[in-house]
Amino acid sequence: MAHSHEPPIEPVPSSSTDTQYPSPELGSQRPRKILIVDDDPSLREVVVHLLRHSGYEVCEAIDGQMALSKVQGEHFDVAVADIVMPHMDGLAFLKAARQLDSRTAYIMMTGFASWDSAVEAMKLGAADYLPKPFTLELLQLIVARTLEKQRLAERAREAEFYKRLAQTDGLTDLYNHRFFHQLLAVEISRARRFQRPLSLIMLDIDHFKIYNDVNGHQAGDRALRQLAWLLKHSSRSYDLIARYGGDEFAIILPETDKKTAGEVAERIRVSIATAPLEHADVLPSGCCTVSLGVASFPEDAVAEGDLVREADRALYQAKLGGRNRICLHQDGRV
């Protein structure tokens, strides 16, 4: 539907579009899919021809209802829709379509003299708008710009995903062994620079091999995930928790002296010992328990590897002392 006495689009020479806008799909895995929604057949014809010539895969719909049915059945990278259409207008389509597929970018066309419709469209989540009448060059520019923003956002999400994948343990979603050492080095450097304390808790599950042998590794994995959840909820928000390996875990406590670290460790020990765990009756104590060792910087060690070793020694002493207990470095049971 044309909303102005002026033509809705103004053609530009094909040589201009070919030289200024080479196909945006070079090097990509698939053509980008675009949906054109307008009840004016002449406008759709010109726009569809232009975008197909530019290398896009293009579908068309004559109103919002038809467009919505297409969005329900397949994914489009971009939808270009007129605001004023019969049966279902562009704003209603935008609102309903975004609930179905929030990944699609929506560009709204409006022939109104006021900015009200464009502002409303942006509030509803439109990526951009085209004021009628518009040139083919402007249409192509806005579509290309929208797709480029979308591509950059996808790359940012992928980068964040792979960064997190490299830092976390796949089973427990805690930090992994490698990233733990990076974190500890950074935190020790900060503690040294500002002359602040830092503590490290090493812990593992008592008799976990018995639990695994009797109940199977799938039950063991569930137990490790439950323990990870308990560690997160028993520690403080700024403590850094990692799966050190197997059934051993490590917690970095910034700005924390040994006494306070012992209190945190005791809270963790109690929360695990009192939490229900399936098939825990196979364990000698009848419930899941952990042993914990605590060492602090700079009191017990000043280097990363030394601090890990001293906390691990304290953990070993806790196990020798009967398990289900805490041992502070060079100290007895808390």
List its salient traits.
single chain, 334 residues, alpha/beta, Rossmann fold, Alpha-Beta Plaits, five-stranded parallel β-sheet, five-stranded mixed β-sheet, 18% strand, disordered N terminus
CATH fold assignment of the largest domain = Rossmann fold
Tell me the distance between the termini.
79 Å
Stretches where pLDDT is under 50 for at least 5 consecutive residues are 1-28
Helix content: 40-55%
What does the radius of gyration come to?
31 Å
The portion of residues forming beta strands comes to: 15-25%
Number of domains: 2
Number of helices: 11
Average of the residue pLDDT scores: 87
Assembly form of the protein: single chain
Can you name the CATH architecture of the largest domain?
3-Layer(aba) Sandwich
What is the CATH H-level superfamily of the largest domain?
Answer: Response regulator
Order of strands, widest sheet: 3-2-4-5-6
Give helix and strand order, one letter per element, not per position: EHEHEHEHEHEEHHEHHEEHEHE
Taking the sheet with the most strands, its summary is: 5 strands, parallel
> So what's the overall shape?
elongated
Q: What class do helices, strands and sheet pairing give?
A: alpha/beta
